[in-house]
Amino acid sequence: xxxxxxxxxxxxxxxxxxxxxxxxxxxxxxxxxxxxxxxxxxxxxxxxxxxxxxxxxxxxxxxxxxxxxxxxxxxxxxxxxxxxxxxxxxxxxxxxxxxxxxxxxxxxxxxxxxxxxxxxxxxxxxxxxxxxxxxxxxxxxxxxxxxxxxxxxxxxxxxxxxxxxxxxxxxxxxxxxxxxxxxxxxxxxxxxxxxxxxxxxxxxxxxxxxxxxxxxxxxxxxxxxxxxxxxxxxxxxxxxxxxxxxxxxxxxxx
Amino acid sequence: xxxxxxxxxxxxxxxxxxxxxxxxxxxxxxxxxxxxxxxxxxxxxxxxxxxxxxxxxxxxxxxxxxxxxxxxxxxxxxxxxxxxxxxxxxxxxxxxxxxxxxxxxxxxxxxxxxxxxxxxxxxxxxxxxxxxxxxxxxxxxxxxxxxxxxxxxxxxxxxxxxxxxxxxxxxxxxxxxxxxxxxxxxxxxxxxxxxxxxxxxxxxxxxxxxxxxxxxxxxxxxxxxxxxxxxxxxxxxxxxxxxxxxxxxxxxxx
DNA sequence: CGCGGAATTGAAAATACTCAAAATTAGTGG
DNA sequence: CCACTAATTTTGAGTATTTTCAATTCCGCG
Lengths: 254, 254
Prior knowledge:
The structure is a homodimer.
Chain A: H1 6-9, H2 15-19, H3 38-47, E1 51-54, E2 59-61, E3 69-75, E4 77-83, E5 89-96, E6 100-101, E7 114-117, E8 121-127, H4 128-137, H5 139-165, H6 168-185, E9 192-194, H7 199-206, H8 210-222, E10 226-229, E11 232-235, H9 238-246
Antiparallel strand pairs in A: 1-8, 2-7, 3-6, 3-8, 4-5, 4-7, 9-11, 10-11
Chain A binds a DNA duplex (30 and 30 nucleotides) through helix 8.
């Protein structure tokens, strides 16, 4: 139907082309093509739509937009949030490179939340109907897709646990440890990273106010558990933060 | 491979058999077989394992159990909950007839939460590997399965919104309206139903204490919005509760 | 009839919020 | 590059919602 893209038939791959393909993407071991062989990765590549650049504060999709594509983040960071009838918003997650956006839209054929770039970012557009066709041909791809959706379900259950019965300091520790481990998975430092979102976003996500986040940062800093400079965080006592996050340790206010 | 079950080849269907099949199940328009034609429903029926009865307070599966099956609820009610490292539990949902349990387990091949029956219940065991085989043959089934998983994602996002930025009275109103609409979907009254879970379970789910739930019930009763007798609830002012749930109206304490 | 779990109610306490002001940082244009 | 303005963050003080603790009450069940 669609003519095969040049790099799919050319024996000598163009580097530029390779970079714009799943096979050449640094995230391919984390992203949708995880575990596929070269043939299947190429098949996946052929259905991927354009790469789209989204600049900071721009939305990738809005609530109620019709659902056409899933999006894989090539680089950059996003936040997703819902807006309730009375206009208040709740951030439901922060996403980074290698993660998939838009799965909430499958059920109603419209997006259920809004995705906004936290910095200049790039995504791969994955037309869902074409992905569904591929599922019939690549069972491994289908199985992995189910794992990704299921992972999103368990991630959200963890957030429910956080919001439902953790105190402020524990919530914040869980947030930091979660960021830390995701950066670590991506080959970055687990103890030193930049927060891409505002204090307000963190507070909204954790069900706390911006003032509470600020106070928590100050307290954690005073306790010597971390260093903060603007959005740059250095974790000095990962074990303590992990214990706090696990709920096996708690600090007295001050 | 497996011999076809008798009702799949017999022209005259046995009523008992029919009742134990998807086609004969009162939930088939809500459950996994939604929208399938007779041929495909029969194919689905053939992979369904045994029907399993779970009595009140018994678990269907526990955290860390190896993942083999999804479960469709034929009748009865369940709660699912997580337990965090420090031993506290958080109820992540209440499930009723026609709903699917176990999707959280796909990602890690072990159950991520525990499912316990709130009353004597019955589920259909759906071996996941066999379901995956069917997906290749019935694209409609696959598409619907994705909608169900996606729906679970959006449901959890709604709970995150609830836990993240609603006050106690709004949370409780959302809970009541949600129950009401799910019973209505199933052909039961939307204004009169029985809560299958304890006050403690409700509180845990909503991120509140049992005492708060009790006080909310008393207040709503005093305001004339509902009638409560033990676990039996009659909603007297659905519009008011919906407005409360939407956040467009709020009641003053007392 | 009495026991035990569940639910209700009250009073005190605590955590996180709101409001306000100051300080810091980022963005913009000269 | 600096100055100016807007936005974000920090900090403090007082408040409010919800929790905790405690005492009753209710209800099912042996």
